[in-house]
Amino acid sequence: MKADPSYVRRFLLEDLDIRGAVVRLADVWQALQAGRDYPAEVAHLLGQMSAVSALIAANLKQNGRLTFQIQGHGPVRLLVVDCNEALNLRGFAGLGEDAPLPAGGGLSNLVGDGILQLTLDVAGMEQPYRSLVPLDGDSITATFEHYLAQSEQQPAGLWLACDERSAAGLFLQKLPGADARDEDGWSRVHQLAHTVRADELLELPPEILLGRLFAEEKVRLFDPRPVTHDFPPDRDKVIGMLRSLGEAEVRRIYAEHGELVVRDDLSNHDYRFEPDEIDALFASHPDLGTPPRSVH
């Protein structure tokens, strides 16, 4: 069965000056998991991180590529999600070799002590903007609420859910003029949002979800923005990388492992090269037979 399309849909509680967004990743979440066989606890973390990354990317004030990376010293060493201004998203989880997963899951058990790194790469910038935030709390939700509180300087709320079929989230943010509109508005809406269930986030269309949660409020719902996972294989790029290593190094790797496979974790592609392909790779570029000498 083909998975449903993925999207972010922004909304505004017009009488309260509170904005928000709903994200639903279905086909994108299926593509991110394809062939990876993540344990359920690991997939849960990556799915929630993918959902919140799409939410934040959809609310960027300037076009750019946004990358969130969680690094730690637990069984899950790395979680990475990358999303550009067109909401083209990719990501992966890196597990330690033969590292047993502790019972109970949870971010602190799986990742251990670590940091959240944000990288924003905008065209025209001399170098990407980077920010480091300590992991705060025992969930992706708590970590990103802490990040939003620091970066946005406005109260925000976040609710995330993930299963094997989809990943979803609800985001709320209090705008500067909210108290002048209704001094109890943020507290009331935030409490209502806390009643949302995981199955509602994962299954209900935004119109029904927001209608149930905020039945007494005036909700302005904007058109959905599609989220995609469109990263076709790029074998030429990998060939260029292998040529830059030099023939001696490439043949050493093949001899040591008995195969030459280049793994692109972020885009979820494997590139396999047989001996005759390695011969052809360097036969057409004889000047690349040995690595260049260093110049001092």
Name the helicity range.
25-40%
Alpha-beta classification: alpha+beta
Q: In percent terms, what proportion of residues is strand?
A: 25-35%
What Rg, in angstroms, do the CA atoms define?
A: 22 Å
Mean pLDDT: 89
Can you write the helix and strand succession as a string? EEHHEEEHEEHEEHHHHEEHHEEH
How would you describe the shape? elongated
Largest sheet: 6 strands, antiparallel
- Uncertain residue segments: 288-296
Give the helix tally.
11
Q: What is the CA-CA span between the terminal residues?
A: 60 Å
Number of strands: 13
Q: What are the main properties of this structure?
A:
13 strands, five-stranded antiparallel β-sheet, 296 residues, single chain, elongated, alpha+beta, disordered C terminus, six-stranded antiparallel β-sheet
Quick overview of this protein structure:
With 296 residues, this protein is α+β, with helices and mostly antiparallel strands.
Would you mind describing this structure in some detail?
Strands 1, 2, 8, 9, 10 and 11 form a 6-stranded antiparallel sheet that branches. The chain has a 5-stranded antiparallel sheet with strand order 5-4-3-6-7, with helices on one face. It is 34% helix and 28% strand. The termini are far apart. The protein contains 11 helices and 13 strands. A hairpin with a 4-residue loop joins strand 12 (260-264) and strand 13.
